[in-house]
Amino acid sequence: MGIQDRIVFCLDNEMDPQILRGVYYQYRYRPKLYGDYENVSLIVYCGGLSTAWQRIICCKEMVHICDSEVEKTNTSEEIDGLIDRLLGPMSGEDFDVFDIMATKDKLALYQCLPLLLPEHARETGIAEIKSGAKTLDVVAAEACIPVNFAKLILSDEWPSIAKEIGC
Predict the structure, then answer these.
(1) Are residue 102 and residue 49 in the same domain, yes or no?
(2) d(Cα 90, Cα 106) in Å, to the nearest integer?
(3) For residue 58, how far is the Cα from the chain centroid?
(4) In which domain of life is the source organism classified (predicted)?
(5) From edge to edge, which strands make up the β-sheet containing 6-12?
């Protein structure tokens, strides 16, 4: 849909985090009868997650706004196919567009990390951990991201990983 005029976030307390943690919809909306259309992205995220996980999911869904058309689901069958791939094995004998969608969905989890812990904050966190001033848990809490993601983004390998995945 190109440039988004608005991004709306909506907490869903009914969403089951074991099935779905977040989803986004894109649509065109005309706020006034003769007004210009607006491109809107609606990001719905699970209320049953911690704040740190809600931030990850919302940011991951924002990354999806930039997805190409082949990576986007447009029908209920495509949504079902994507969920099947995400919940089931990622490898098998069936190769189709759902594999691409599921791979991109997983990749977006990692592509969103630099948005939540930018390079300067990352370097500061690394220095504080190395000096003993803070622990990994404290840095993760201050960044409000799950510890397992903080461990990855603060690792020595992260710069190479980030480059490879297009961050």
Answers:
(1) no
(2) 11
(3) 6
(4) Bacteria
(5) 6-12, 38-46, 22-29
**How many residues in the chain?**
167
Report d(CA 98, CA 127) in Å as an integer.
41
Q: Specify whether the CB–CB gap between 165 and 104 falls below 8 A.
A: no
Q: Are 128 and 153 contained in the same domain? A: yes
Region of poorest pLDDT, from 18-22, 95-99, 154-158: 95-99
Tens-digit pLDDT profile for residues 16-65: 998 889 998 889 999 888 989 999 999 999 999 999 999 999 999 999 88
Where does a domain end: 66, 89, 122? 66
Tokens of 49: 């997650």
Number of structural domains (the chain) is 3
> Which domain range does residue 132 map to?
114-167
